[in-house]
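Priority: medium. Attachment 1 of 2:
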């Protein structure tokens, strides 16, 4: 009789969590479970991530080795003339406000998620790829129930989901965007996953699929070439490491800026006398910390706060052997282009203003794009894993993570309380406060306060695991429909 693995996961969807749990029940380790969860999230969280996107994995394996796997998107090796590009703005309506994102084939960067999945598989997996893919295949083939949060994401990004005929088959019914309670299928994606299980990633990066994408780019206005796919590599880096109150925090290193932003923030926080969290002084402290951190021009990409959407998802895992995994992935908002015969939407990372501080088409050729994504791990005084965490949320990512870690360390909270604590964020002269956050006493100049009437995905989805007093617990952030399952 096979031995089940004791493992725990916090993430953004019940089926993403279920996929990991299935793998733990098959005896897999945290890396096996992470692969299954990443694949499942691309099916059941399709407005937040995709196999046509990119991401990062921060990990400590059972022997204590620390690594960050960078499989984020790469810029093309050559630029096409702007006049020849399929690159345009589309309006995203939040109901009370709106935002414009740039999409089209000219917005697509080289995707890295599949390369990342297979790199993790080659280095750490213990189960066959077919077993790891099976949960995602099952959801894509047999269908899953659209929940309230995913239905909301479909409505917001409806202008993008309605563009391609293959996307219409997935996201529309009778000409209307799917609503909560609908059964959703991804038949083409199921076939593609089955192909991946038997053939691997080579066809995507060196075969017919890459050729098809390149052919469409050449004909319809994209930058990507076959060389871009063929030469894509996962980068394995040392995490950015710093100490805060005798705890070691491991973050995403350069060229991404999420880790160094959080390092700067905690450096300033370490000098503070911490007020009680229910006071105006506590709000004042965070307001000033965020304002000063965003003002550190050498750290922050100019205009990075523009994206209110933050189309990203987080997966945190730990197994009984001590393998700790934090994975953050994203597809931007999606380019609107579905790779033929795969059911996979490509990213729009070259249309993300947050990644292009010098304007559209200012990117440097053949370079890994920077990101605020910051999958994080906290070690206790003995060097043991204390917390595994991360979030989506664009520019808000390092600040949301930092507030949760602050509540865990400085206020000794349990993980559920730390994640559910109301959050603060400052941008564009506006201090955003979730409900029940006391207003600060002193604002600078023309700064204004916006007190939200409820918690919202704007403030991230910090799905987290905590080891405290020899107990391990996990909590999925309800702001982004989070769930946590399993035990160790």
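Attachment 2 of 2:
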């Amino acid at each position: 009789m096979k031995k089940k693995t004791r493992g725990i996961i916090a993430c953004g969807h019940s089926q993403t969590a279920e996929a990991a749990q299935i793998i733990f029940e098959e005896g897999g380790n945290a890396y096996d479970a992470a692969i299954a969860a990443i694949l499942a999230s691309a099916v059941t969280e399709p407005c937040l991530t995709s196999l046509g996107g990119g991401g990062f994995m921060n990990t400590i394996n059972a022997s204590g080795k620390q690594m960050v796997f960078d499989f984020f998107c790469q810029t093309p090796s050559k630029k096409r003339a702007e006049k020849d590009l399929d690159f345009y703005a589309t309006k995203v309506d939040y109901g009370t406000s709106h935002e414009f994102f740039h999409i089209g084939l000219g917005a697509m960067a080289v995707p890295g998620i599949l390369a990342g999945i297979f790199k993790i598989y080659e280095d750490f997996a213990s189960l066959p790829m077919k077993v790891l893919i099976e949960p995602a295949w099952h959801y894509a083939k047999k269908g899953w129930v659209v929940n309230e949060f995913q239905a909301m994401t479909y409505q917001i990004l409806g202008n993008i989901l309605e563009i391609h005929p293959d996307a219409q088959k997935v996201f529309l019914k009778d000409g209307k965007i799917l609503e909560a309670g609908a059964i959703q299928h991804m038949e083409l994606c199921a076939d593609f996953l089955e192909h991946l299980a038997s053939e691997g990633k080579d066809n995507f990066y060196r075969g017919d699929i890459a050729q098809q994408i390149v052919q469409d780019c050449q004909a319809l206005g994209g930058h990507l070439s076959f060389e871009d796919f063929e030469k894509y590599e996962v980068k394995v880096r040392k995490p950015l490491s710093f100490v805060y109150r005798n705890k070691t925090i491991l973050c995403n290193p350069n060229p991404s800026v999420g880790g160094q932003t959080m390092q700067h923030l905690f450096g300033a926080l370490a000098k503070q006398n911490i007020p009680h969290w229910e006071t105006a002084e506590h709000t004042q402290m965070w307001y000033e910390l965020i304002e000063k951190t965003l003002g550190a021009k050498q750290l922050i990409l100019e205009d990075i706060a523009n994206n209110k959407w933050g189309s990203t998802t987080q997966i945190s895992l730990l197994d009984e052997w001590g393998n700790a995994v934090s994975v953050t992935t994203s597809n931007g908002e999606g380019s609107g282009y579905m790779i033929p015969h795969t059911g996979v939407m490509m990213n729009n990372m070259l249309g993300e203003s947050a990644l292009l501080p010098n304007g559209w088409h200012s990117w440097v050729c053949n370079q890994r794009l920077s990101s605020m994504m910051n999958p994080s791990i906290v070690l206790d005084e003995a060097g043991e894993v204390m917390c595994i965490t991360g979030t989506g949320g664009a520019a808000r990512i390092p600040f949301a993570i930092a507030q949760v870690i602050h509540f865990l360390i400085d206020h000794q909270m349990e993980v559920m309380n730390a994640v559910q604590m109301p959050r603060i964020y400052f941008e564009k002269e506006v201090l955003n406060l979730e409900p029940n956050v006391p207003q600060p006493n002193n604002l600078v100049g023309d700064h204004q306060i916006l007190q939200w009437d409820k918690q919202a995905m704007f403030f991230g989805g910090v799905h987290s695991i905590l080891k405290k007093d020899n107990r391990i617990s996990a909590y999925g952030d309800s702001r982004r429909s989070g769930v946590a399952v399993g035990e160790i």
